[in-house]
Structures are given as structure tokens and as C-alpha cells.
Design goal:
heterodimer, A: alpha/beta, Rossmann fold, six-stranded parallel sheet, four-stranded mixed sheet, 12 strands, 22% helix, 24% strand, B: alpha/beta, binds iron/sulfur cluster
Amino acid sequence: MARDEILRRIRAARVPAAAPAIRNYNRTGPGGVELFAERVADYRAIVHVVTDVPAKLRELLPGKRIVAPDVPSSWLIDGVEWLRDPLTIDELDGADGVLTGCAVAIADTGTIVLDGGEAQGRRALTLLPDYHVCVVRADQVAASVPEALARLEPTRPLTFISGPSATSDIELNRVEGVHGPRTLEVLIVT
Amino acid sequence: MGTRNPVTWLGSPTFPKAAREALADTQLRQNLRKATGTIRGRRAAAVAEMTDWENLRLAGEAIKNDVLSRLDTLLVQLEEAVTARGGVVHWARDAAEANEIVLRLAREAGTDEVVKVKSMATAEIGLNEALEAGGVKAIETDLAELIVQLGDDRPSHILVPAIHRNRSEIRDIFQRRMGISVSDEPAELAEAARRYLRQKFLTTRVAVSGANFAVADTGSIVVLESEGNGRMCLTLPETLITVMGIEKLVPTWQDLEVFLQLLPRSSTAERMNPYTSVWTGVTPGDGPSSFHLILLDNGRTATLADSVGRQALRCIRCSACLNVCPVYERTGGKSYGSVYPGPIGAILTPQLVGDMHDPLSASLPYASSLCGACFEVCPVRIDIPQVLTHLRAEAVEAKGRTAESIAMAAAAWVFASASRYERAQKLGSLARFIARDGRITSLPWPGSKWTSSRDVPAPPAESFRSWWRKNRGS
Ligand code: SF4
């Protein structure tokens, strides 16, 4: 009943047809790994440009309890306590960090997008641990927001991440570190 | 409907009465000046980076106009897409219906507590109060909302509801209500909120959110946030209930490429906000197993029927118009008597209420100097001054010449300080409304109500003068 009445009211409003949008804004941009690295760092993520992922991980992770979804086996270096699903919420909350890949990254805005696909896991895995290490391949870096959206499948659960958790709620200044991971470390593989 | 629309707060005075009190609060004015000044500068820088900003604004305007012109078709399309992906869609004509649905769903889920992501739609319908009355406690998880909730306060800004509080006031509220000792360092305050809410996130079974956008052709819902409280609420609970205004649609996934660029830069002056979540119905093994979408009218279809006023429905709630408004900066958000303050509130609230005999509604279109700064920053190009003028005419028609609404044409009293007034002039085109010498010492009744006590700058007199011309002979 509510449905029919709302639809009836909308039709009764008789809004004239609108001209189609003109999409003459920039669809792409300079892009590139360097710009991406610079923009991610702007939001106080820690950025490394690397060629050898396991070597970098050996510097970052030993001695920690790290959640790992289906990441490449070469990333599962020794000296780390790897936590694999099924994990309870408390287990996730007690982990030191999480290691993932990503679906797409955006150079223009310094954004990483997760879609629950390969090497990313379900959303809770990258949310509860306080430290997120994300590996981005150079070919995953889109130049612009339009390019990135075109590469994504909208019906997958998506999380766009631009820097660590932050708030602008105190005097409208950005302060890092509220509920999401407070440290974001991005490994860009070239 | 019959019942009053909770978009305005019960018992709120008209804008001029509330504003007069707010003007006397120097702490409030200081806090607002500092916060809005900061964000204005940062927004300008974030926008200046974009060489195609005007093209994006035009595209944003056009996409939203298209949505409004075929809202019925798109809503049905959204409903089909969400349902096909395992979600349940509900329709609510007004606040009471929406609140009832949320309460029923919470009870069905067997909970007496829900966690909430900041949402204007749920604030507009007074959901927290309605849940409370039904025995369900709503816990706000956005930092600013938490500050408002713990301070037994009201919101004063659509993006940062606690913008009227400075850091030491926030510390005092946290110390009092959380029983902790904490400094006024923003990082420590954020840490306190993290600790306070953590257990709630991990254990609460039902979450309530709003939506920034809904994609009609895929059924995807989009929420932008900063802190991660949104991700917590959208991911961990078993049941997710999303309340969204029927105008929040975009037709296609591609259309988001425009709004994901316009919104972050306009609201928090960031290239991108820290977190954006997108979900479509239910995804087995990832996130809530039950998803409910409530499509809310609550005055929107009536707004849609007004050919001038309907452009307010393009609003993406970025809050840029609040941050540049010289009247808002002086009077604060609570003077507007509604969850929607500032320039957008001045045109949206009266339309959602839909009754210009309501004194507060009738006074809101006068809460402006018509300087035009709001239009210049609006990412979807809502011509707020045009709608204000249009609504003033409606208010005059509804009220005849009762003093309150007409006297408000002299809203320039807000600019009692000369320097602020000059800045307001620079912000926009106020100058064109000024008397020849730039100041006036008396106005004919009823403007004289405002000029008797002090010499005020010339009022933004357009509607006042036209009213006067039309009515003085009668
Ligand atoms: S009216 Fe425009 S500027 Fe104001 S909040 Fe809405 S979208 Fe932003």
C-alpha cells in the first residue's frame, strides 16, 4: 500500500524528462605507480615500492600473528604465525595484522579497492586487525576513479580504502586512527 | 499523514528567535568560525586540483535531474535488483511508518540494542527516539554522533553533528559519560571512542545505516565514511537495516564515477574519504545474512511536485553550503530547529514539512542573506537562492503580512560586525542587494523590528522589497 501510494505520488508530480548528462569530465589521468605512491602516502599510509614481496614481508612481519586469506604461498614466510579462516570475531580482533592483495587501486586518489576476490578474503578480515599490509601490483593501478569503477564488478562486496582509519569530527581536522586498522602499509610491486 | 514530521524539533522557536540566542553564545561562534574556516580553505584546495570540476558539477546535476524525472521506474528497478540478490525492500510514506518497520525488524531479530552508522535519514525521522520508546536502544557509532548522544545534545551540522563543540568540551563529555580520564588531544579522544565502542561492534546483532547512493540497475548500496565504524556496522552484525530517502538513487554504476569525485572533495575536502563500502543484497559468507532496505518518502514526493523546489532533492548532503554560509557561521546549526541546518536546511526542511503555516518552516527561507556562496560550492548546482526566494513567496502567501516572516527579510542583522559583513560580500553577490550607501539606519515596518536597536547593513531586500511593493497599497 505504501509502495503504490509513493509511486502514485511520484507520477503525479509530473517531472519533465531531463537532458542526458554530458560526460566531458576527465576519464583518465596521468596515473602511474609513482603518483599512486605519493597519494597513498599523503594520507599517512606507509608505502614501499618493491620488486620482491617475500623479502619485504620478512622485514615487516616476523614474530607477529597475521591473518592471511588465500594469498600466494610465497608470501607465507617463516617466522610468522599465520591465521587462516575459519576465524571467529574474537580471533580476528586478537590478531596483530592482516596481509592481503587488492582488486584495483586508484592513482589519482591514493585508493585501494578490495572486492573479496583472490588474496583478499571476506570483509571482516581486513577490518578487525589493527594493522593492514596490502600488496598492490603495478598493473592493478588505475589512473582515475572512472577507470577504476569500470574495472570493478559492482555486485561484489567492495571496500574502498584511502589511508588508515581517520576522523574529521573534532574541529574538522583529519585525525588518523579510530575504528578501522590504524596502520596501513602498502607494498607496490613493480 | 496527520502526525507532525519530526524533521523539525518539537517546540523549536522560529529561526530569528533561536538565532538571537545563538548569537549571544561567543564560545559557539568561536568554535564554528574555527571549524568552518578550516574546512573552507581545505575544500577550495581540494577542488582547485581538479581541472574538470565544473564539468563534474554539470554531470552531477544532470544525472540527479534524470533520476528525479523517472524516479518511479528507477525505484522499481532498484527494488527488483535488491530482491534478486536476497535483500528485502520496504516502503515508508512517512517517519512513523519507517520507524515502525525498523522497530519490528529489530524485535524479530530478538535484540534490544542496535548499532548505528551516521545517517541523515534516520535523524530526520527521529528513529532513535522511536526505538527507545519501543524498548530498543540505538547506539550511535560515528564520533560526532556519539559526542551529541553522550552530551544529550542536538546535531548542528549534517556532516559533523558536533561541530559546535571544541576539543575541551568533547573531553569533558567523554570524561563525564565514559567515566575515564582523557586529555583533549584529538588522537586521544579518538582512541577513547575506539575503546568505548569496540565491544558493541563485536557483539551487537543488528545495525542500522543510511545510504549515500543506491545504484538502480545493480541494486548496490554505497556508504562513505571515515572512521571504520561504518564498515563495522555494515560487516559484523547478522542483520543490516538501511533507511534511505527515495531520491538517493543513481541510474547506473558508471554514474558513481561522478559522485565519488564530487562528494569527498566537497564534504571533508579529501581526494577520497578513508572508507567507502558497497554491497548488493546479501553475500553468503561475507557480512550480514539478512538485509533490509527501507525506501523513505516523508515529504519527498511533495517536494518533487514543486517545479522550483524539487532541485533540493539533488542534494548529496556534502555540507559545503553550510561551511561557506555567513549566516550559518554566525548562528550555528541548532538555530534552524531541524536536523537539516544551513542553506540546504533552509530550503529542504520547509518543503519536507510541507506546511508554510508552521511558523518555524515559514521563517527558514529568511535565514539567508541570498549572497549566493552556497550555489557556488554546491557540487550538484542547487540554486539555493532561487529556491529561498520561491519559498519566501510561499511563506508570504500563507501568512499574509504577519510580522515574523516578513521581518526576517532583514536577515542582514546577522552581520552586525562590519568585517564579517565585508567577507560575506566577498563571498558572493550580496552587494547587489545593498542600499546605495551600503548601510541603512531604518527600515519601514516590519523591518524596523530589526533596525530599531542598531545600525545594520542593508538587508538582502529582494523579496522584502517586492513584497512591500506588492502590498503597501492594500
Ligand atoms: S545543497 Fe549542495 S552544497 Fe549543500 S549539502 Fe546539498 S549537495 Fe552539498
